[in-house]
Amino acid sequence: MKAKWIGSVLIGMLALGMVQPAAAEETKTIEDEIIYDVLVDRYFNKSIQNDYDVNAQDPADFSGGDFAGVVDQVLYVKEMGFTVLSIGPVFSSATYDGQQVLDYNEFERHFGTKEEFKTLLEEVHDQDIKVMVDVPTQNLSKDHTWAVENPEWFEENEDGTLALDTANSDVQEALIETFSKFVQEYEVDGLKLQNADQLDAGFIKDFSEAIKEIRNIYLINDVEMEPVEGLDAVVLPGAEEALRNSYKQFDQGSSDVPAVMEKSAGHLIRVDSLLGSRFTADIVAERGFPPTRWRLMATQLLTMPGIPIVQYGTETAMNGEALPESHQILNMAVDEELIDHITNLTTLRNSSAALRTGDTEVLHEEDGWLVYKRFNDEESWIVAINNTSSTQSVTLPADIIGSDKELQGLFESDRVRQEANGEYRISLERELAETYHVTDETGFNKAYIVALAVLYIVFMIFLWVVWRKGKQRKADEAAKNKE
After folding, report:
1. Same domain, yes or no, for 274 and 157?
2. Which SUPFAM superfamilies does the UniProt record give (predicted)?
3. In terms of residue numbers, what domain contains 461?
4. FRET label pair with 183: which of 64, 256, 260, 414, CA 20 to 30 Å apart?
C-alpha cells in the first residue's frame, strides 16, 4: 500500500481528535456498533478437555473451537476495531453450528462449561466489546428435550429437523421464560433471533418486551426481512446481492448501490454470509483478485450508512460456495494487508459520528466510479471508490465541499486543494478506494517550517562543534609530536 504508514498515522491522529467524551458511551445505540460474527466451533481450539470425538478433517463435524478459544483470541477482535462479538448459538446441539439445539438449558459440551462461558463474557467485556448470542427456533434437533413431552409444539422440516410453532401461546411462554432466565443469569448484550422471518410477529414483540424489562439489550435477526416491532435492526433486503454484484469484479457498474445506501440507515448490512456462499466465491467465479475486491468492498461496507456485520474470515478472504465449506476454521497465519485495511476503516468509523449516523449524499455514480459524502454538523468525509479498469476523475463544486478547504486522503496519501476556479478535482487510479477528510486549508505549516529551520541550525552548530574539536585535536597532536 502506497505510504501505508503515513495513512495509519493520520488515521490514528484523526481518531484521537474525534474521540467522544466518556459520557457519550451512555447513549450508544446499535447504529454505533460494528458486529463481528463468528461460530465458536470454527474460531479457535484452546482447550482439549472438551474435544469429544472431534474431527477437524470433516467439514461437517465438530472441529474443537471453544469458549476458551474465543477468550484467547479476543485481542484479535479488539485490535480489528469491532464493538460487538456475535458468537452464534451456544446451547447443546447435534451440529457444530449450534442450530440443531437439543436443550436450551445446557451449553454445548464441545464449547465448554457455564463457568467458561461466564469467563468469556467477563474477558470480552474487559475489552469493551459486547457479546451477542443466537437463538435458533426453526431448525432444532428431532431429539430436542421439548419434543417428547410437547410434540404439538413442533412442525417437521423437509430435512428432518423441527421448527417451533411460535404462534402457539405455550411455545411463546416457554421461550420467553427460558431466555428471560438466560439473560438474568448471563450478562449477554444481545440476542439474534435466527430465521426471524418465520416467527410470529406477536411473539417477537412480546419476547422483546419481556427481555428488555430485564435489561436493555440488543435484539436483531439474521435474515433479510422488513422491519418488525421488537427488533432493534433487521438485515436490509437486497443489499447483499446488490453489493456483491457491484464489486465481484471491476467494471460491473454501481447503479444499484445508491438505492441501497438510501435505505440502509438503521439496518444491518452484510456482504459475506454464514448462511451460504462467501463473497470470495463470487470473486473467484469471475476470475477476480480477492484482496483487491475485498479492499473496495470493505471501504463500501464500513463507510456507508447502516450497521455493518462482518463475518469471521472476511479479513482472510475466506472462500466457500455452500455449507459447511463456507464455515472453515479461521486461519490467522495470513497476509495482514486486508486485516490492516479493515482495522483502519473500523478505527475511522468508531471515531466518527458522521460515518456512523451522519447524512449521505451521492455525488457521482457512473459505471463503477462512485463518490459520496458522509457528513454531520461537525465533520465531512468524501468517499471515492474506483471499481473500473481505468483512472477516473470527478470535479466537485465549492457548494458541496466549501471554500478554502482541502481533502486529506487517508489511504493513498492524496491531498486535494481548491483550484483557481473554486472547484475540487479528485482522481483515482483503477481499482482503488480513498476516504478523504474535509478540513480547512492549511497552506504552509509555519510551525513545521520553523521546526525545520531550528533543526537545521542545531545540526550546523553540531557540525561546527565537531569541526572545532577535530581541529583542536589535530593541533594538540602536532604540539605533542614537536615535544
Report:
1. yes
2. (Trans)glycosidases (SSF51445), Glycosyl hydrolase domain (SSF51011)
3. 455-483
4. 64
Rounded Cα–Cα distance for residues 12 and 18 (Å)? 10
383: exposed, middle or buried (Cβ count in 10 Å: 0-12, 13-18, 19+): buried
Single out the residue in 335, 357, 379 at which a domain terminates.
357
Contact 360, 392 (CB under 8 A): no
- List beta partners, residue 190: 132, 218
- Give the separation between CA 130 and CA 30, rounded to whole angstroms: 11
As a 3-state breakdown, the chain gives helix, strand, coil percent values, each rounded to 5, of: 40, 20, 40
C-alpha cell, 314: 472476511
Task: Identify which of 246, 236, 238 has the alpha carbon closest to the alpha carbon of residue 279.
Answer: 246
**Residue 416 located in a structural domain:** no
Given a contact cutoff of 8 angstroms between Cβ atoms, the answer to whether 298 and 12 are in contact is no
Q: How many domains does the chain have?
A: 2
Interval 318-377: pLDDT, tens: 999 999 999 999 998 888 999 999 999 999 999 999 999 999 999 999 999 999 999 999
